Amino acid sequence: MLNLLVAWNKKSKLNLLNRLRKRKNRVRPKQQKFCLSIITQFYPPDYAATGQLIQELATQLGDENVRVSVFTGQPGYAFSNSRAPRIEENQRVKVKRTRATQLLSKKILGKALNGIIFSVRAGLHIIRHRKNQDVLLLTTAPPFLFTVGYLANIFFKTPYVCLVYDLYPDVVTEFGLISSQNAIAKLWNWCNNRIWSRAQGIIVLSDTMKDRIVAKHPRTSSKIAVIHNWANADWIKPISKEQNWFAYEHGTHHKFTVLYSGNLGRCHDLETMLGTIKLLKDEEIRFVFIGAGVKHELCRQTVKEWGLRNCTFLPYQDRSYLPYSLTSCDLALVSIAPGMEGVVVPSKLYGVMAAGRAIAAICEPHSYLRSLIDDANCGACFNNGDSEGLAEFIRFLAKDPQTASKMGQSGRKHLEANFTPQIIAQQYQEILNPQTQSITISR
């Protein structure tokens, strides 16, 4: 009996020691920083650039121990998926999609109706989950979504941050759809003033966008942070055209190729590009347009009417092709239409920099693109309408591809130092964290 008691005591001690060792070696999870709720209409599998950027931001913030939830809509711009799972969740991000489907998403009236329906559902979502949200991040997709954050703050004291991708009502007034003196535009500006005054912070994508807001709403200046878009340099990497299957598939591997990738819409300068294409029609230079948009189709029709044979038009490609499509060229085009500076910001610029390709930007003299491209030493800028100057630059690089390569390498180096998901996520945290509200970022 005594021997059994001794054996039992030894076994108990061993079990106790093992439990203590496991407890000592157990890695304690990092303390959660705060709970962020992102509200945006577009999110993958949509190929809208804003949705893809939000996904990368949410994932990066989740990696840094921010509890992230995303409320979004059903796909309106996906390839084959008209519906996506209503709830998706992993260890970092929880995504919830509204049941509402997109209606007439390519028509202006349909987009407005979609936006209204989504905003109402977003408001209901915020009400149901108000106890689990430390701060809201709302985008301009749809344009009037900020109103939901404003009302949530009034009724529930929930802090909110506005992420301005496109500046309204400036978009519609610059298009000439309504006058800046129209009652709708005045009401919109009045609402902006109330919303932005109550916001915890306002994130814009360029200095010129900040200047536009401050010109109308001077008191918001201290709340505005300029945080650029970004690209994942670990995913998009330089690939030579000789080793690029996409370049071989579309015949760009043996010619100097100029690429325009992404949406080509009303905010972009097509006219200058068409002038350049016409000037270079008899030279061994290929122009490739990948994407969609009102002016994408107009470009296709014009090229056909003019009998030009130096252009290739492709639809949006699967997102997994992006590292190959962006590196299938020698030079990439970025453009902003006259009057749209500070209203929109082309996100495609950062992906091209990651791909290590030279950039030609068509923009106004005061555009933020000029200082960015100059700092990165990754290309050149041209005034709207300067088709001849752009054509000469393309000829120069076609004759000296080594210079184009050096520009691309310099652009990638600048991106890695300033515009990676890790760097940008840190800047977002400074604005979003309710405990460290600091609006000092301007890069």
Q: Summary?
A:
With 443 residues, the chain is α/β, with parallel strands linked by helices.
What would you say this structure looks like, in words?
The protein is α/β, with parallel strands linked by helices and 443 residues long. The chain has two domains: 35-230 and 421-432, Glycogen Phosphorylase B (Rossmann fold); 241-418, Rossmann fold, CATH 3.40.50. 44% of the residues lie in helices and 15% in strands. The chain contains 16 helices and 14 strands. The strands form two sheets. Strands 3-4-2-1-5-6-7-8 form an eight-stranded mixed beta sheet, with helices on both faces. A six-stranded parallel beta sheet has the order 11-10-9-12-13-14, sandwiched between helices. Helix 9 crosses helix 14 and helix 12 (348-355) crosses helix 15 (401-418). The radius of gyration is 25 Å and the shape is globular. 43% of the residues are buried.
Structural key phrases:
alpha/beta; Rossmann fold; six-stranded parallel beta sheet; 16 helices; 14 strands
How do the strands and helices of this protein lay out in sequence?
Layout: H1 2-25, E1 35-39, H2 49-63, E2 67-72, E3 87-89, E4 93-97, H3 108-128, E5 135-139, H4 146-156, E6 160-163, H5 170-175, H6 183-198, E7 201-204, H7 207-216, E8 224-226, H8 245-249, E9 256-261, H9 270-279, E10 285-290, H10 294-305, E11 311-314, H11 322-325, E12 331-335, H12 348-355, E13 358-363, H13 368-376, E14 379-383, H14 387-399, H15 401-418, H16 421-432
Parallel strand pairs: 1-2, 1-5, 2-4, 5-6, 6-7, 7-8, 9-10, 9-12, 10-11, 12-13, 13-14
Antiparallel strand pairs: 3-4
